[in-house]
Amino acid sequence: MALLKVSGLSKSFGGVTAIADLDFEVPEGHVYSVIGPNGAGKTTLFNMLSGIYTPDEGSIRFLGRDIVGRLPHKVAELGVSRTFQNLQMFFNMSVLDNVKVGCHLRTKSRLWNSALRLSSTRREEQQAELWAREALHFCGLDDYLQLDADALPYGVLKRLEIARALAAAPKLLLMDEPAAGLNDTETKAMRKLIRRISDTGITVLLVEHNMGLVMDVSDRILVIDYGSRLAEGSPREIQHNPKVIDAYLGGEVEYAV
Amino acid sequence: MFDQILQFVLTGVTVGATYALVALGFAIIYNASDVVNFSQGEFVMLGAMGSIAFSAGNGLPLWLAAICAVLLVICVGMALQRFAIAPARGASVVTTIIITIGASIFLRGVALLLWGKDIFGMPHFSGEEPIKIGEATLLPQNLWVMGGASVLVLGVHYFFNHTTNGKAVLACSCNRTAAQLVGINVSRMMLIAYGLSALLGSLAGILVAPITFTSYDAGVMLGLKGFSAAILGGFGNPMGAVAGGLLLGLIESLAAGLISSGYKDAIGFVILLLVLFFKPSGLFGKASAERV
Amino acid sequence: MSYLRGFYLLTITAAVLPLIFPDNYYVTVVGVTAALHAILAVSLNLLMGYAGQISLGHAGFFGIGAYASAILTTRYGWNPWPAILAGLGLTAVVAFTLARPILRLKGHYLAMATLGLGIIINIVLVQAGKFTGGPDGLGGIPSLSLFGWSVDSDLRWYIVIVSVLLVVVWLALNIINSRSGRALRALHGSEVAAEMMGINTTATKTGVFVLAALIASLAGSLFAYQQAFVSPDSFSFFFSIELVTMVVLGGMASTYGAIIGAIILTFLPELLVVFEDYEVMIFGAILMLMMIFLPQGLFVGLQHLLRRLTRDRRTAIDAAEAGESGRGAA
User: Fold this and answer.
1) Helix (H, G, I), strand (E, B) or coil at A32
2) Range of B57's domain?
3) How many domains does chain B have?
4) Is the Cβ of B292 closer than 8 Å to some Cβ of chain A?
5) pLDDT tens readout for residues C154-212
6) C182 and A186 in contact by Cβ < 8 A?
């Protein structure tokens, strides 16, 4: 079954087309990658899927429901979480608190309950702390718990963003260039992490430039160029698709998997 | 009725011209350094008070006293940049706001110390014989304010569009690092921007002082009005700031005449809020999009 | 919980001070003003320090509370307690109505809008003389009494206002260290990420704006009863700026910082009185110097300094170990 079904999606900014009549389906449990050259519209696509931009046309169905026009927090409520290409960490908070924010939708206590420290709030706090620690552990961040987020190196922040998104227990995780700016060892660790996330049953939609990583972790790949679909298929099919090789990869390509 | 409205418009344009100069000063500093300078109003006060002190106290002719005062205020503006703004580079919006508010309190304190709490008047530049336009009257000083403001605005426009230094200041406001890379002396450009802003403020003060009188705290409300005018016109847009200033002056004058003089300041701010609510980028500003 | 440790210390200090100095002017008179300012600074800090929404009009809500209580008790003979509630109700309506359009704005635009709001409220207080007494103010405001215990001495006012301060601090600390508090800090850190984590940022901003306004309104009512007199001067643009300065001076996003900022800014003029004519100038100079050299604020700045001095060795070791394990995982 398709968890996410996008049809006829279009978006332009002041006459410049970012996404044009795009269709694709993401089956549940898959790692589905979107690749394409810089400026192909990948981040615009993510921003529409997560409710930050409203598409000009087309529909986005998540779990059978049309989510076009929903605000980001309403999209998140349905079980969509994401990471950002340019880090969007809460640098004014500790590592643990960053991830606890991820638990926002799994907890309920309101301003007044919190202000009065009712017992329900205290129970929830303990639960949130547990979930946050789990997510941090899952991403291998146990050592950084009490540090302030602004004290962390870039590579760790990339994983922290994932931990925060996972703390929301999403059904669909949108990852915008998780390996950008990472060194080789960090990229390998990221590859493992994406596989382990997928193993837990979370569907992953991935935008990434590192071809080795994409070919390795993806079940299916969508190639877009100038906002529209160039090809779609398994990593093998994409690697051998002449259109892709010609238009995007520019002839001979070598994959260091 | 028509004559009455004409009178309000004439008064409004005069007041608006002052606001426009203050707003222009705000916009120049904001453009150059991302700082909202809350001591802009004190430049106005110091210009007027300084001229009066130099002419009455030291017996200089008014024009010479005015030049001395303007030079003094330019130094104050540059000192503000060098000793208060530059060291705090990279600080948050709130921090810089408080620094400039501290500077305004400091300058007010200095004025209080030198001249006390008295209200001072300044002689009109060319007599007080009213000029009649229909039933409405106009003082020669009103013409001085409007004319002076026009000349200054055109001068600023010329400076930014046709001189190397002016373009260099603009370059710094667009992209500081890039400006530095092409060899622009950024810290000198900052001094120029603050100096220019002080020049505009002090001249506004001198032009309008014969009509409104002045005192050590005369800059407070003017500063706030200038800030509103700059926002009204679209922050960071110098000519928008000028338009915002004229508009605010007109609105206030008409509101004072037709509705209530007590509420005229409130009406100005209500309109400002409405503009912010419905067109936050200001009347003449460009909307900015946030990138994620 | 560990975050309440400072709160206990504050409570003990507040309780012990009047026992040691029962008739000291600086404790029971200036101290009460400082406590009142601290209530305002703590509330403003929730909005500004934590949620990152600057407000240059906080004194307006302080004024609404004060004048609601003053007018209802003197002109309509209300009992002071329901008058406080009426003030809170009015504040809630005003704050809730304006929160949405105002908090859509950011940075300098938000500063200008809140500044305008504060000035408008102040002008109404001056101009609506029929109710407010105009620029001369309104006197003869009755005092509070609680089950026959009349709050009629400096020491009693100290007890009342410091108690309210402690309650407000306790509420603020609880909020900050909870789901709602994290939501506030999150929207300060990155609004788009906060939304993506399911936080309704509009509702959160509105909530904290109304809460801060309500606390300010309560402080205003107490102020009116304590002074028995109100005039528009106490709620001017300058006072809003002073409140912002308290928050920043102590250190943004620190409740204790806000309290310390309030105490410093209340006592500073008292100390500067000896400089007479130089007072205003020195005050301005101190503001500038503090912000230039300690932009994080006194409390937070010193805290960081202390932490760096005590933890220097430990963090170095932590970092080394972290690097080690990072390599191990790869």
Assistant:
1) strand
2) 34-116+140-217
3) 1
4) yes
5) 999 999 999 999 999 999 999 999 999 999 999 999 999 999 999 999 999 999 999 99
6) no
Instruction: Report whether B219 contacts B63 (CB < 8 A).
Output: no
Highest mean pLDDT among A19-23, B166-170, C68-72: C68-72
pLDDT of res. B46: 96
Give contacts of A 125-164 with C, CB under 8 A: 125, 128, 140, 143-144, 147, 155-156, 164
Q: How far C150 CA sits from the closest chain B CA (Å)?
A: 39
Strand ranges inside C76-191, DSSP E: 138-139, 145-146, 149-150
Integer CA distances (angstroms), B167 to B161, B163, B173, in order: 6, 6, 10
C139: which residues sit within 8 A by CB, 6+ positions away? C74, C133, C228, C229
The per-residue b/e assignment along C181-220, b for 16 or more CB within 10 angstroms, e otherwise, is bbbbbbbbbbbbbbbbbbbbbbebbbbbbbbbbbbbbbbb
pLDDT of A248 > 90? The answer is: no
Q: Which chains does C contact via 3+ CB–CB distances below 8 A?
A: A, B
| For residues B105-126, average pLDDT | 92
A72, A73, A92 ranked by CB distance to C185: nearest: A92
pLDDT at A7: 95
Of C104, C124, C292, the CB nearest to B99: C292
Nearest-angstrom CA–CA distance, B252 and B262: 11
In a domain? residue B225: no
CA distances from A31 to A76, A219, B140, C307 (A): 19, 5, 78, 44
pLDDT of residue A251: 47
Take residue A66 and report the two structure tokens written for it.
């049309």
* Cβ contact B22:B245 at 8 Å: yes
The helix/strand/coil state of A176 is strand
**A219 CB neighbour count, 10 Å cutoff:** 16
Delimit the domains of chain A by residue range: 26-54+66-79+170-257, 88-169
Most A CBs within 10 Å, among C167, C196, C201, C296, to test the A interface:
C196
Taking the CA of residue B186 and the nearest CA in chain C, the distance in Å comes to 20
* CA distances from residue C112 to C63, C83, C108 in whole angstroms, order as listed: 19, 31, 6
Nearest to C160 by CA among C247, C78, C84, C108: C84
The C residues from 63 to 92 touching A (CB cutoff 8 Å) are none
Q: Which of B96, B260, B280 sits opposite C109 (nearest CB)?
A: B280
Q: Cβ A76–C198 below 8 Å, yes or no?
A: yes
Fold of C2-295: ABC transporter involved in vitamin B12 uptake, BtuC (1.10.3470)
Identify whether B207 is part of a domain: yes
CATH architecture of A26-54+66-79+170-257: 3-Layer(aba) Sandwich (3.40)
> What are C63-118's pLDDT values in tens digits?
999 999 999 999 999 999 999 999 999 999 999 999 999 999 988 889 889 999 99
- Residue B88 included in any domain: yes
φ and ψ at B291, to 5 degrees? -100, 135
Structural domain contains residue B12? no
Contacts of B292 in chain A (CB under 8 A): 43, 47, 52, 84, 86, 88
What is the DSSP secondary structure assignment for residue B120, as one 8-state letter?
B
Size of interface A-B (CB pairs under 8 A): 6
- The per-residue pLDDT for range B233-250, each reduced to its tens digit, is 887 788 889 999 999 999
Chain C residues closer than 8 Å to B236 by CB: none
Residue by residue, DSSP assigns C288-328 as HHHHHH-TT-HHHHHHHHHHHHHHHHHHHHHHHHHHHHHHH
Which of B33-42, C291-300, C315-324 has the least mean pLDDT? C315-324
Q: Which residues in B198-233 are b (16+ Cβ under 10 Å) and which e? A: bbbbbbbbbbbbbbbebbbebbbebbbbbbbbbbbb
Instruction: Answer yes or no: do C174 and A82 touch at CB < 8 A.
Output: no
